Amino acid sequence: MINNIGSYPNTNLLTKYTTAKTLNKQPQTLPAQQPMPQKTVDADIFYIADLHGKMTNMERIGAVAKLFDAMKSNGAKLKLASGDILLGSNPLTNKVANHFLNWIGVTANALGNHELDATPEAFATTLKDAKYELLAINTTVAPNSPMAGKIKKSRIEEHNGEKFGIIGIAPSDAIERVGTRESLEDIKIDDIDTTIKKVQEELNNLKSQGINKIIVISHAGKEADKRIAQETDGVDIILGGHTHDLYKGIKENKNLLYSKSGSPVVLTQIGKDGEFAGILKTKFDENGHIIQVQNNVGRTGLFTRTLPYKTAVESIIGKPEILGEIKSAPPAPKDRLIENNPHGNFIVDAMRDALKTDVAILNAGNLRGYFAPGSIDDRRINDVTPFEDKMMVCELTEQQIVNALKVGAKSFLNPGHKPGILLVSGLEYTVTTKGELKKVSFVDRDGNRSEIDVNNPSTTKTLTVACDDFFACGGDDYLPTNPNPDYIKQKFDVDKNVYTADFIRKQTQPIEIKEDDRIKIIDA
What is the per-residue pLDDT across 36-68, written as a single tens digit (0 to 9) for each? Predict the structure, then answer.
């Protein structure tokens, strides 16, 4: 638990330090008689990432941050975030997330893909109130963009007379993960090879200023972070995000790697949706190398949402509206990206009901929470599906629908199971754990089923489909990327959350969210 700092043992890295100049040399143990460095510097780092706009968990993390503030320390205390704190295009949700970083005292946040869900103008407006700096060394911003001058390469912090360099990194695959392409017209992000070169240049720049304790806040993902650690010289810590991994403690070759010159590099990943927060305790020698580290990770659900934070959030978004009652609901799926999800099915049913279409489709990555028995309010809906996308009615051929389902099915084989299967209403389909689409049926409103030939779907027979603009315009490549496809028949300046809230209000009895077999997943 995070408030028991001694729950993980310290790892002494001094014996692992090597002066090897190439990666293929084995680490060398320092002679036993070599004295310990005379000067050491302690640094405690509170770190978060990938909150995805989850306001209830922000309130809990506020309690963790206060605990961190109260911790006794002989050295520096830093608070850093590694991106995807904001989410979607809702200005109120992003305003809460922005103020949350201010409230807990974060000084720097990496640019994540979900920070780019909003338009450049809306994002720049949100950042006007920011007391932290937004960092991403691998971005180029159009000079006429509202975001011009809003993203910095790095920052220098001084604590107790000791200087720390902090470098930010944005995800190179943002184009696949951003809800609106408008942001990426203004902000270009480098590929990983170029990113690594730019990180090394900035490391050299910081070291030329006498700064030898350097932290990277990265939203590049686990594998990219490993490359940065091993292919640069001068990074001490990489606080990671984006791939939603979780590192507890310190394990060599997993989150303890070595730089080109052999110095230790510590990596963190802190899961997703604000379910965890971390405190990294470190000790540096006089040369700026880490000689001791302790990584403490705690589940935020163990902390209480305090009244001051709840009041502060409500001062921005207002008090939640009670919409109805959930009588029963199954547990959340263990892997929301590759499971039939009754919580998501409830939302796609609401979409289909509101827009009176043949079917409704929603990508599983849209789901970030679940419904629970008891009173249900509009904030809970936002926790379940926080993206504020615009709803659309499309007319898609059987072939387009089948192709989109096949893209989702491939998620079983992809790293992190991205982008996820498609949740459906008005369709039933079967997929294998090896990513093969085996069967698809259309189910009309009377319950009549008609099979769609997955091997030879019609290119002329169409169905009306309720979906969001992310799916319709080619987000995650379920459909070909196109900002204005001709199959869009109606556009609505309304998000699925509105339809879900209306759907709940219409129910005359407490709601039972049930498992069903609209998506069958079978072993290959």
Answer: 546 899 999 999 999 998 888 999 999 999 999
Is the link from the previous residue into 419 a cis peptide, with omega within 30 of 0? Answer: yes
d(CA 270, CA 49): 6
Would you say 89 and 388 are in contact if contact means Cβ atoms under 8 Å apart? yes
| Whole-angstrom distance, CA of residue 433 vs CA of residue 420 | 12
Report which of 92, 126, 97, 87 is spatially closest to residue 387, judged by C-alpha positions: 87
Helix (H) or strand (E) holding 511: strand 511-512
**Alpha-carbon distances, residue 288 vs 41, 193, 202, 205, 282 (angstroms):** 8, 26, 16, 15, 11
Residue 437 parent element (H or E):
strand 437-443
Are 241 and 51 in contact by the 8 Å Cβ rule? The answer is: no
**Helices of type H across 375-508:** 378-384, 398-409, 469-472, 496-506
DSSP bridge pairs for 294: 281
- Least Cα distance to 11 among 315, 311, 248 occurs for 248
φ, ψ for residue 27, nearest 5 deg: -55, 140
For residue 31, name the pLDDT band (cuts at 50, 70, 90): very low
Average pLDDT over residues 369-377: 93
pLDDT digits (tens, 9 = 90+) for 229-239: 999 999 999 99
Q: Looking at 124-252, which runs of residues are DSSP E strands?
A: 133-135, 139-141, 151-152, 154-159, 162-169, 187-189, 214-218, 237-239
- How far apart CA 405 and CA 283 sit, in angstroms, is 50
User: What are the chain's domains?
Assistant: 41-302 (3.60.21.10), 320-522 (3.90.780.10)
Number of C-beta neighbours around residue 439 at 10 A:
14
Q: Could you tell me if 113 and 84 are in contact, meaning their C-beta atoms sit under 8 angstroms apart?
A: yes
> Which two structure tokens, joined as six digits, stand for 130?
């920011």
Q: How many CB atoms lie within 10 A of CB 397?
A: 16
- Sheet strands side by side (includes 488-492): 422-425, 359-363, 462-468, 391-397, 488-492
CA distance 53 to 86: 5
Q: What is the pLDDT of residues 455-491, one digit of tens each?
A: 999 999 999 999 999 999 998 899 998 888 999 999 9
- Return the pLDDT at 35: 53
Q: What is the DSSP letter of 265?
A: E
